[in-house]
Amino acid sequence: MKILTNKLFLVLALAGMLPGCADLEEKPVGLLAPEALFRTTKDVETAIFGAYGWIASERLYGRQFVSALMLRSDMADIGDRGTPAERQQVNDFNMDDNNNMVNQFWPQWYQVISACNAAIAGAEQLGLNEAEISPLMAEARFIRAFSYFHLVQVFGDVPYIDFFIDDPASVKTISKTPAAEVYTKIIADLEFAKQWLPEKQPSEVRSRASKGSAASYLASVYLTVADYQKAYTEAKYVIDNKDKFGYALEADFQTLFRAPQPNNMKEHIFDVDFLGLQSGAGGANDDIMAPMTGVRGGDAPRSGWSVIVPSMKVFETWDARDYRKEVSFDDSLLVGGKLVPYTEFQNTKRPHIAKYARYAGNSSSEGRYSDHNYAAMRYAEILLIAAEASVEINGPNAEAISYINQIRARARNWAGKQTTFPEDVKAGLNKTDMINLILEERRLELAFEYKRWYDIKRRKLGEVVFKSANSLEPHPNFDPLRDYLMPLPRVELQVNPNLGPQNPGY
């Protein structure tokens, strides 16, 4: 699906006109206009595929962005301390405004957005009827909303650009948009996408957005801004229409992390598709999460770099009877032809994350350039969103409990062998305890899937998870006035002071 044509390169060249191009004056780009680039719906679709392709790149879902999300959470720590300082800064809550991880993924998100804006502008000037062009515009608006949803959660106020840039100088004075307004615009894009996207894309591929994808992200956005009634309504819409959309829980949890995943995996609502042993310019299709999380010194094809490794407490506090723990960790590995426990790993003597390295599919000897389809949203998360929102509205109730128990029932299936753990949730918990149980269920079910930091942030749990006696990964320097946001790149503020002020504490 990653289509690269000469016309697409012209469209994506416009990304350099957005924030993230510090050498704007030194390397001017020629002016382009939508009418010169978009003459058919196929041209619009090409730009949309380009936007998807930017997401499936080393700077975003291939390493930089998702690594930052994992390291920021209480579920993943630095293993090999010889890794570059930029990663240690993110993990240890001592970032500065020149952190190179941020310098890498900030402009990439705006490249995605630029491609979306180009597609929308191109579609609008084709002069076609609403039914012909709205589904394509809806797909571009979904990707734009997806991009801004990540940006606003990580940075707060950000420059919001929703137009085709035909004058590079125009972005030199752009200022930030308040986060609340960004959320409003995200919701508008997702509502349009929900209206116009198809129920299923051709061949039911999950790496292209559908009506269910839009509704699912509406549920997630509303949960993030604590509009629980709307979060419940959207999640319930997805659940009630799951058969129409083709959604269900996979029977075996391991199936979700065994590459190559089918392009129409029923639990995936929206995924980021990497193609095994293929790569392109600018880090395109370069998935490095298997080596980043894999064991350094293991026998090929399982030799990684031990960069992102959970603390021992993350492993030790997870009940061994839970099949999800078995799937999520490698606590032994072949080293020199011998199966050794983690206490004998050559570099970082802790259990490692297995979700990406264990079955990387058609990939390099370290698991790089994998076949993974990373689930940005899966059906299990919709069940948990519905449960959390329902409890916030009505207190503990049977419906919310039933959603959690569907997930726990799947966790009792050890590759076809039925077990008795985790047990079903029983009625009787108060509201606070029920919310805490759901957050814990999210922590385990979605472990290492780039969700935990967002849960910590939206629930303001930082001081609890990083500074309490029960912390899985203690960080006594965590500062809630600073660390719920990352800094805007220093170079962006130098080029355009209107982007100030810098986020607090940086």
Write the topology of this structure.
Elements (H helix, E strand, L loop, with lengths): L5 H8 L20 H4 L3 H15 L8 H9 L4 E2 L6 H8 L7 H25 L5 H26 L23 H18 L14 H14 L3 H13 L1 H4 L22 E6 L15 H5 L14 E2 L2 H5 L6 H6 E2 L1 E4 L2 E4 L10 E2 L19 E6 H16 L3 H14 L1 E2 L2 E2 L12 H15 L6 H7 L3 H6 L22 H6 L11
Antiparallel strand pairs: 1-3, 2-8, 4-7, 5-6, 9-10
Architecture overview:
The protein is mostly helical and 506 residues long. Among the domains are: 1-172, no CATH class; 281-371, no CATH class. Helix content is 44%, strand content 6%. Strands 1-3 form a two-stranded antiparallel sheet. Strand 5 (332-335) and strand 6 (338-341) form a beta hairpin. Helix 3 (41-55) runs parallel beside helix 7 and helix 4 (64-72) runs parallel beside helix 5. The model is unreliable at 1-31 (pLDDT under 50).
Give me some keywords for this one.
506 residues; mainly alpha; two-stranded antiparallel sheet; two-stranded antiparallel ribbon; 6% strand
